[in-house]
Amino acid sequence: METTETRFDFDTFFRAHYPRIARAIARITGDPARAEDLAAEAFWKLWRTPRAQGEKAGGWLYRTAVRLGLNELRGRERRTRYEQLVQRRPAEPTPEQERAAAEEREQVRRVLAALDARGAELLLLRGGGLSYARIAAALDLNPASVGTLLSRAQRAFREEYRKHYGERE
Prior knowledge:
Order of helices and strands: HHHHHHHH
């Protein structure tokens, strides 16, 4: 008697999704090398979680990757704060940090780290070009509520940005 159960082809899935997952994490962390490590960790978690394998593996993996990226970002912020406390002086800016575009990206990362996880995930997924339907699938949301939730997340982002950096020029 044959079973109708299909085997999850992890190798094919890995090859198909790894570059996209690593790029998504790199957009969050700003560190492509660390993003590759975190992408590998996300796949390892998928490998170790058989219930996540199957039809919804893409959404599960994307959500896990975004959360790993946000955790990395939050950890980096904590480490920077602690290092500055130990040094008793602010870190010297490098020429790279002085560039306007790099500074703005860093500000956005800081604001994202201060948001609640779901709001940050919504903004990152939408910013990554995902449709409302794909966002709903990735975050286990009702597709009809994605627009409202995104609007709230955008408003929270603007408020948090203004709180930290004032109005944009």
